[in-house]
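Lecture 7 notes: from sequence to structure.
We start with the chain below.
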Amino acid sequence: MPSSLAHSHVTLSPAQKARKINMDADLYGTFAEIGAGQETVRHFFRAGGASQTIAKAMSAYDKDFSNAIYGKEPGNRFVCESRLRNMLRHEYGLMVERLSRKDHPTKKFFTFANTVATSTLERPHSGHGWIGVRFQTGPDRPTSDVIIHVRLHDPDISLQQETLGVMGTNLLYGCLFQHLDPQEIMTSLYDNVSRHVIEVDMIQMNGPDFAQVDNRLLSLQLVKRGYTDAVIFGPDGQNLQASEALYKKNILTIRGSFRPVTKVNIDMIMNGYNMFIKENRVDRSNLQVLFEITLNNLQADTGSVDEKDFIDRADILCSLGQTVLISNYQQYYKLVEYFSRYTKARMGLIMGVNNLIEVFDEKYYRDLNGGMLEAFGILFTRDLKIYVYPSKPTADVPLMTTENMPVHPRLKPLYDYLLYNKRIVDIESFDPTVLHIFSQKVLAMIREGRDNWEELVPPYVDNMIKDNRLFGYRPKGEVSGVPKVEAKA
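Predicted structure tokens for the same chain:
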């Protein structure tokens, strides 16, 4: 992601952005907006000079008309990523088909599209939508796409519509004038928009103009910038929208630093998974496993996020076929509350016994009016089960499980109640030979060039670390990245 282009951000109003696009004689495109009115294109009509920029503006508001134009989506959904992509494909295709290049030799075509559902009186915080742009950066250039998903938080529906129009204008302006700097596109999304009223929880930049962009870093940026609290990307590295990935699914999550993934991480997830799929209310064919890394975990060493270190971890998890969740939820109850937006099915958390000790530490809930009981109300009024992995860091320390875990006497009745009702259960079929492994220790061994760290990570992970020089790994005899040269006699 280019950093050399960084500069102080200049905020323009929606009218100024629309006017600049309209006044550029080489920009020509179409607007297609479903739901929430023609909110984006309205800025361009009002700015003046729209006739030389807008080839067409439309809204296939009726569902049957929409399906007739763009095709029917799975489940007959209208506010979904596949509908947005079909809108971009169809509308841009019409541009190319109907406008002769002989008549428009210098034009750079674009298509703006969105499909949005605002909140309703029955569901006041349910508003969300997909917004996207397909565009050229030169008359003979292939197209690139930028797609975002937004959640609407303003209780006033008319204000939701206004916000959508501003953000849509920001996105189109960013694509057409800031495509050389993806960071600037992201910054300008919130020009004249409050982060409290609209949340961007997914972004993708694809195409030749973004060939050097890693969409996983864009996901990380969304959380770092406070645009959203959680993002998901799949094994292929592509960003996923939470409602698409988690809707009505059983969710099983393990939290860790995964720096690097170790044999103990794999033992935890395998044994926790085997217990979870045996539960009555778990459908194995409708299960999403997530490896969660918190922003706090990403800032462990320096207090800031090292993007190279993040990608190192992500590369390994993706190579193991895992889906990754990056979140700003330090407390587990916030994570469960997030999942509950999308599913009522049974959820599972896999955690080490030391993490469970922290869950029962009252100091983490001082910001809540109801304190720890409020947090536990959120946790256990959901269909949630916690699978606890034991601890035995050294041979001379007794094995710690839920049976002998230290709990404050005041909280013991609550703890015993959850144990009795099997909302908290031990992972019993664990591998005792891996309990001494800790990611921090393995990371230190890799960085210091010590031997035998390979035995502490899963098969193939050691080769990935060596081949790609992850986590500061350097082959023997190499100092500061320079191969050692033997002196000649």
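Points to note: The two ends are 47 Å apart (CA to CA). The CA atoms of residues 4 and 181 lie 9 Å apart.
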